[in-house]
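In response to a reviewer's request, we include the raw inputs and outputs for one of the modeled complexes. The two entities were modeled together in a single run.
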Amino acid sequence: MPAHRNLTLLPAMILAAVLGSSSALAQTPLASVAEWPSKPIRLIAPFAHGGPTDQASRTLAPKLAEALGKPVFVENIPGAGSTLGTGRIAQAEPDGHTFGLGHVGALSIAPAMYDKLGYDPLTSYTTISLVCDFVNILVVRADSPVRSVADLIAQARSRPGALTYGSAGIGSSNHLSGELLASMAGVKMTHVPYKGSAPAMVDLIGGRLDFMFDILLNSMPNVQSGRLRILGVTSLTEIPSVPGIPPVAQAVPSFEVLGWVGLLGPAGLPKPITDRLNAEIARIMQMPEIVKAFAGMGYIARTSTPEAFHALIEKDLRMWDPIIRGAGIRAN
Amino acid sequence: MSAFDGLATGLATALAFHNLLFALAGCLCGTLIGVLPGVGPLATMAMLLPLTSYFPAESALIMLAGVYYGAQYGGSTTAILVNLPGESSSAITCIDGHQMARAGRAGVALTVAALASFFAGCVATLVIAGFADGLSQLAVSFKPADYFSLIFFGLIGATALSAGSMTTSVAATLIGILLGCVGTDLYTGIQRFTLGIRPLAAGIDFVCLAIGVFGLAEIIANLTRGAMDQTLLSRHVSGQWPTAEDWRRAWPAALRGTAIGSALGVLPGGGASLGSFAAYAVERRITRDPSRFGHGAVEGVAAPEAANNAAAQTSFIPMLTLGIPANAVMAVMIGALMIHGIVPGPDILVKRPDVAWGLIASMLVGNLMLLVINLPLIGLWVSLLRVPYRVMFPAIVLFCSIGAFSSGYSAFEVGLTALLAVVGFMLIWFGCSPASLALGFILGPMLEEQFRRAMILSRGDLSTFFTHPVSAVLLAASALVSASVLLPTLGRARREAFADETR
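The model returned the following structure tokens for the whole complex.
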């Protein structure tokens, strides 16, 4: 709601002009902490309409609005692998009225892929709290001769480059999971990118791809109908939503791909605001209906301290950097 | 459960009073956003999504579906009236639809569009009810090589057979393909033709292209022709009802369009927009007098409109049977089901027949509703054309700007649209067809995507395009079409081309 923001700023601007001083504007962030939030809040979702992450932000917004007593608007700014919208969060005024959802792709993966990102994942933001995380699962066609992850690795070793896997595009979590597997197991496999994971899933079911990493949500309908079979999960341990499925790490020790989404604001957000939001998120993410809604989207509701969120961004940056550069994945 | 039992169950759900209201709300909302350029069904549905958690699952789906096909309906209205396609699938309707409007036959064009859409919608619904399972098999077995050949056929067919000179239509198509290349390469992540401008990394939005090249360029052209003091209608305005001659031409075209759209809509790789192009190309191919096309042929409205509505409907099949969204709109529908804890997939028809069949039956109801909403509105739309152009065009420019802005929520898109308007005007100036440009823009990137995927999967073996039967047949058909145009003895189209050039 940019127009609205300008309107509400107007009196302050006139006041500043009358007083002949611009310092009134500069002080706005600090002066307004006491009565924060004083106007509607903008929640930037750096994804297109409709995807699970968009749905997550739209599930969260009304709860935040209820807690803070002001409307919360979701603004979708998709593009350039989510880096466009994520950059917009960094550029916002740190007055506590613009936040956004940052995810592993834009914060910990994109920095190794793009030359000019327009933001620094470690210094451009004030981290507030993690919101959820998610695992990928490794699926094959139900009639595939491959019975286990170890089988898959053995096949890839005997026929370098012959096995194909689909993804939602260069640098997507399905692609990077594949690259990580290949790199950790020391094998070669062929990556086939698609525009989104749905068309890739069609080719997997149609028998034109050998396997695929994907989020639970996308694969479950076809696992339940017996078209696909799960070989492993990308977390280090089994997860409750798919009991009995071993982690990929059983075959490739310490293999782990964990996606996450968290709430953050621009750098320099006043501490009282960060603390208040962190407390609200911690409360909201425990509500049974929110946990259920997130589970429906394939996410596990999760919260953290601002510091732990920051540390996670840093840890994953360090993990993905060599994989991405090693595979020569660029987006420039 | 047989298809008829299913439909009966579904009708009981869809005809419940509250569900009728949901269908009406969805259809009205969809028609409205379809008429406004830039505000697509996707954004609207995503915004409605959180609201739907308060309704029963079937009501939520019925309303969202209403928005979706309502938008398909509404999109053709602006395409015909002011040459502004609201959706990529209605770009082709501009060609003959707008010419009909200029010739004072806007009412006929809108009526034909509405009836063709209604007919196609009903048939496609029955197709879903009867053949969903078999068709989902088609979707799964369609290979990248097949997609490539299909798109290639569409591209060749529509270019070779488009109105006017061959050279200019090929040129416009190629420019469209180049514009479509702008953005991040899917296979390498390398940015092409983005000039280092970050918002261009995602490519040029079709909404910006359509608004600039069709809507705004048309306005500039009209103004240079001194349209300032006139209305869009220079000639006598005929009535709203098609003549007997119109009927005779339109109904077989609508029938063919329905068949083509129903088949292509099932394919998850962008079948809906392909459907209207293919239907138009087929009409031009089989008509005895192709010269009428581009100058207000009624078949040129009936066929693509029927095709895009049928495709919009049958694109529900992969979602209902495989749980795979054919496009982003379907992903939102799946989201709506997930909110209610229903996982779409092969067993949804068995486990929740009320939801699945309710949705299918609501399509029949919704299509009837759209007809009831739209037919009386036609008179109103046509009377808009009587507004003096000096009042009309600033209003269109305003709506275009809003549409462009809302495609990316930044002023950049508005600037880009203005630039594309200049490109569009130059095309008109040089006698190129903006529709050919749109064709290249939409199909070019799809062609490349499928070609490279087929090549990766075949390990670089070109013969993959000839060894798969579907692909081979389509390539042979493309060769035939090219030959019939290029060989002067067979080339009726070519003589016209020369006639056109010397005109």
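As requested, we also summarize the result in words. The radius of gyration of chain B is 22 Å. Chain B has 21 helices and two strands.
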